[in-house]
């Protein structure tokens, strides 16, 4: 069946139709319209967008266009496979295995940044079995359910989830023993019936009212093999779960990662963890080596006590920041935890795909971008004004429009030290003393 293509000038009509049909206050986002247009045009497309950005609308949008309302779209969600791979690795794999054409395919990456979600990393202060580090979830003063923020708590297994539900319910009763507060904390796991889970999600997403006419759920304790309670196995697990906070336009959220103190026992400021773990021939288990033991006070330098209840928030600065190794077994998670810099920069360094103008998958080598002759010319002329570089390269360098800004920035940062190059003849002449 041939799809009815849509022209760019018709996208606004489709956007208006989607806004009306789906009862939205604003038009679809540009990446959503790009994905819809690719389907209607019969093009292959890869679109990467963060959790909660509205990827489902890409599948729903084509049904509103004239001539395709009766068609069926098959959606497959390989969530575990997606979590295990970085975007650039996954994209290369798809391009090769699905035989994407060299020309005509659509690639869109709107990044994983979630500026509306605040990120907090805190080390556990109490024994893990006490769950006292979860007290911050419930406000100190609770008059009604409106005072409790909607919260997901991810745990490792059903048994632990049940204990956390009991603990939070007990803590809630100690704050406000009103009967209306019962049932505000609920479990959510695979052992529960589908009907229960559907009702729980529906009630959880409802905005509670002060009169309590309807059931209210404020906290869902979700069981997940890659939970946020304690340190996850890999970085992408945290990114996926943190994306559940602040979903929807105009919403804000808070993602809190509670980590064990052992996360600060590996010194990442001097060496990487081995990216390819060795195999234990005795037990047949994979194990990682080359973890440098952290020196004394290393954990304090990584803000182990930052904003802790012990009020010992003394700042110690590392001489060098933890090194980011996206190929490590934890995919850069330990560097994310230990860094003293902005954690969003670490997030971006691990997950952001290379820009298209970096030519990561080109068939030519680096000399195809900047050849040795040009490099030699820039080296010999030394430090000069940017205007001189422009006059030399603007008309002769093929990639000037694409990479001139980056090249000029690199050249301006260089501080070459020139040393007089003495030839053999000059050395011989220098040994002759002048006649009296």
TrEMBL record:
Species of the source: Obba rivulosa
Gene Ontology MF annotations: ATP binding; nucleic acid binding
DEAD/DEAH-box helicase domain mapped to chain residues: 31-94
InterPro entries membership: DEAD/DEAH_box_helicase_dom, P-loop_NTPase
Gene3D superfamilies (alphabetical): P-loop containing nucleotide triphosphate hydrolases
Protein's recorded name: DEAD/DEAH-box helicase domain-containing protein
């Amino acid at each position: 069946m041939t799809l009815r293509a849509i022209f760019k000038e018709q996208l606004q009509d489709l956007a208006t139709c989607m806004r009306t049909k789906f009862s939205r206050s604003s038009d679809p986002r540009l990446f959503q319209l790009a994905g819809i247009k690719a389907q209607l045009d019969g093009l292959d497309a890869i679109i990467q967008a963060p959790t909660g950005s509205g990827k489902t609308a890409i599948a729903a949008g084509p049904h509103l266009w004239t001539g395709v309302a009766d068609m069926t779209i098959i959606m497959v969600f390989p969530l575990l496979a997606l979590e295990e791979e970085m975007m650039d690795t996954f994209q290369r794999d798809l391009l090769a295995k699905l035989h994407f054409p060299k020309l005509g395919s659509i690639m869109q990456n709107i990044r994983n940044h979630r500026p509306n979600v605040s990120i907090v990393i805190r080390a556990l202060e109490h024994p893990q079995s006490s769950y006292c580090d979860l007290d911050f979830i419930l406000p100190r003063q609770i008059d009604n359910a409106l005072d409790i923020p909607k919260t997901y708590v991810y745990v490792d297994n059903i048994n632990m989830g049940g204990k956390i539900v009991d603990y939070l319910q007990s803590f809630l009763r100690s704050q406000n023993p009103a009967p209306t507060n019962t049932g505000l904390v609920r479990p959510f796991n695979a052992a529960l019936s589908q009907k229960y889970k559907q009702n729980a999600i529906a009630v959880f997403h409802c905005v509670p009212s002060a009169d309590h006419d309807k059931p209210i759920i404020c906290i869902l304790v979700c069981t997940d093999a890659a939970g946020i309670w304690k340190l996850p196995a890999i970085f992408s697990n945290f990114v996926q779960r943190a994306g559940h906070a602040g979903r929807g336009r105009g919403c804000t959220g808070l993602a809190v990662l509670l980590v064990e103190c052992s996360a600060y026992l590996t010194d990442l400021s001097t060496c990487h963890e081995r990216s390819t773990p060795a195999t234990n021939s005795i037990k047949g288990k994979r194990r990682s080596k080359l973890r440098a033991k952290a020196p004394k006070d290393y954990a304090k330098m990584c803000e182990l006590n930052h904003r802790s209840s012990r009020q010992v928030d003394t700042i110690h600065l590392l001489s060098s920041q933890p090194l980011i190794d996206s190929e490590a077994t934890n995919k850069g998670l330990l560097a994310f935890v230990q860094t003293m810099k902005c954690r969003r920069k670490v997030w971006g360094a691990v997950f952001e795909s290379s820009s298209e103008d970096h030519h990561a998958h080109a068939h030519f080598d680096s000399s195809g971008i900047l050849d040795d002759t040009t490099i030699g010319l820039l080296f010999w002329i030394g430090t000069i004004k940017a205007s001189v570089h422009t006059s030399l390269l603007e008309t002769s360098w093929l990639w000037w429009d694409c990479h001139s800004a980056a090249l000029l920035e690199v050249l301006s940062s260089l501080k070459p030290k020139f040393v007089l190059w003495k030839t053999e003849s000059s050395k011989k002449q220098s040994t002759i003393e002048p006649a009296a």
